[in-house]
Amino acid sequence: MRAVLVFCEGTHDVVFVERSLGACAGCERLKGAIRDLPSPFGASKNSSVPTGLIATQIRKLDIQDIALQDDYPPAPQFETAVQNRAADVVYVLIRAGGKNKSKAVIELMQYVDDTMSADDFDVVEHAAAFLFDADDDGLASTVEQFQGEYGTYFGDLSQAAHARWTTASSIPVGV
Fold it and tell me: What is the span of the domain harbouring residue 88?
């Protein structure tokens, strides 16, 4: 099985992507408990990682320091997952909190990459897709900012372009 981690700015973007993948790509929402998701996102019965990535990430939260008016849980945060069973791909939708949150998103990607390289899981390949609003910055500037901020982690993103995948990076990256 393959996974695509889809980083969206906010909750509305997550819902848009989830519905779009359902309508255009035949994906269905994965229902059930977090532990039932494909490993390493959910629990793995045959792994040195006893709980999945999502449960571990949630446990890391220090909720005592969160103000009531803050977004909870703080971004980046796993929001939902949809699957295209025919293509054997699961899309894990993550609320990134904005296009300027690269440090926290990179930390999450490092955690995912480290975990995936440590054992044998249901998910054997993964990619990352980023859906960020161009806003007043414009498309070219937004892509350029993405290349600069995320190139420090993924490597060569010089070929990254709107609505395209690049494979020159450490994993396939779409923007």
Answer: 2-174
CA nearest to 105, candidates 2, 1, 4, 9:
9
Q: Among 10, 165, 1, which residue's Cα sits nearest to residue 90?
A: 1
pLDDT, average across residues 132-144: 91
**Helix (H), strand (E), coil (C) string for 45-99:** CCCCCCCCHHHHHHHCCCHHHCCCCCCCCCCCEEEEEEEECCCCEEEEEEECCCC
CATH number of the domain that 129 lies in? 3.40.50.10620
- Cβ count within 10 A of residue 165: 14
φ, ψ dihedrals at 44, nearest 5°: -120, 125
Q: Are 2 and 89 in contact (CB under 8 A)?
A: yes
Enclosing H/E stretch for 7: strand 2-8
Q: In this predicted model, which residue has the larger pLDDT, 83 or 64? A: 83
Sign of CA pseudo-dihedral 150, 153, 157, 162: negative
Encode pLDDT of 89-103 as tens digits: 999 999 999 888 999
Can you give the pTM of this predicted structure? 0.90
Query: What is the tally of structural domains in the chain?
Result: 1
Cβ-Cβ contacts under 8 Å for 31 (sequence gap 6 or more)? none
Mean pLDDT score across all residues of the chain: 88
